[in-house]
Amino acid sequence: MIKFILTSCLLFLIGISTVSADDNQIKLFLAEPFLKAEFTKIRKLKILSRPFTTSGKVLFLPEKGLVWETLKPIRDVLFIGYDGVGQLDKETSKLVKIDNPIVKSVSMVFVTIISLDLDKIKQVFDINMAESNHGKQKYILLPKDETIKKAIRQIEISGKKRVELINIIENGGDSTLVKFKNEKFRQDAFNRDELKLLEMM
11-200 architecture in CATH? Predict the structure, then answer.
C-alpha cells in the first residue's frame, strides 16, 4: 500500500536539457483541473520483465481531495485527501484510514499535482521546462522536501494543451506512468455511486 501511494504520486526524464519554466506558459498548461477522468497506470519494476497495468477512474474535488478507483484487474479504492489517506474496506464498504506520516506526506504531493495549482506545486517542487517533442509540452518536477526526495527522483508532466501524462521516477529505478483520458470538468458528471465515494472523504 505504501509503495502504491509513493508511486501513484508522478514522472520521468533522464538526460534531457531543461530550463526554468516560464510562469505564464505553464499557467496555460495547467489551465483547469479535471473533476473526473479515466486513467491507465503502467507500473515498471526493475525486478520484473513486464510492466503491470491497471485502469480505472479518478474523482477530484478541490476542497476535499481525490478518489482513486482502480477497476481492472481488480477493484480497489483509495481516498487521498488533505488530511491523509484511506482505503475502502471490501467487506464493510467503509473507509479505513492509513495512519502513516510518510504516506500522508506523499499523498499531499499527489493531490497537489492533480489540482494543477501552480503556487502549491512550486511550494513542493522546482519546475523545469524540457524540450518540446511532437508538439507536446513537458515539465520536470524536482522535489524540494528531503522526505520526498528519498522516494521520488523526479516527476514529468506532459501533454499537448494540458496535462495528459504523469510519470514518476523513483530513486531505485522503478517508475509509474499514468495516462488520463475522457476528462470531465463539471460536477454533474458524477453518478450516484461516485458521489457516495466523494461523500466518504
Answer: Clam (2.50)
